[in-house]
Design a protein that fits this description.
307 residues; mainly beta; outer membrane lipoprotein receptor (LolB), chain A; ten-stranded antiparallel sheet; 3 helices; 37% strand
Amino acid sequence: MPPPRIQVHRTNFVPGKRLGGSAIGFALLGLVLFVPVSAYPATPAGRGPAPPTLALEDTLPVPRIQLREVEVRAGRMSLDQILDRIVAGEARRDSLIHDEVFDVYVRMLARDPGAESPVRTLVSQVSRVYRQQPRLKREIIVKRSGREDMEISAGQGMRERIIKFAFDPALRKLYRFRIVGRDFAGGHIVYRIEFEPRSDFYKLPTGRLWVDTNEFVILREEFWYRGSSPAPLVFKSLDNFVVERTRVDGRYWVISRVMGRVTFALPILGIPPQGDMVISYHNYRINQGIDPKMFAGARQEQAEVEE
């Protein structure tokens, strides 16, 4: 019986082009299934088929590659340098915004202490806010329900002091800061920094914040009054306040949500034992111009004092 005939097809090899996994797999499967052992000529000693002949490139020595070690030394910023950069980054953030329009959704909830206590809505309000440098502001209430004796306002100024009060020049020296963590996110480092009053004498909150080192702006802040109160006759404690920011138009950092819980010292005259506050900000339009007629007759807010 004559040995089977084997046809070898020539393939054009293109340097840099990889064969697909399925093509290689089918080629190997064809060799195993359709090329019998008897197709190889026997060795003179009769010890079985001869191995396939190696190509020239299979016999060349494997090149050895040695990589040179390089030591990179970069000085780590001190805590004071980081704090100074945060102040500068926040100042730059403020300088970028000339005018802004946004919607504010506010809910004030009443509850008794305890996880299972029922929750009832005191006030629910939706308003649109127009603000322009240096001191112009107008707020239009779109929808409101609940108690009429509770006034809710978006507040004055465009500096968003609620998220960076610890860096106010008058307060920073009263705080002790420390770095508690570094996270890698979005291709750069995010610092987690805690702050607390240097003395119990100062009725100041304690908290932590997350700082983006790409622009050195504050992304998130948590703070609380637990051992002390800024107004002991009104507030017993202020717990779990959270302030978050989002980025608009890929350039402007603005507040997106504020949440917090207040325990009142004297729950009388309709004041609940505890109250929850939830504020969210939506539909930002920044530096798109505001018609001057929008501020006609509107109350001119007192500008925040720049230190």
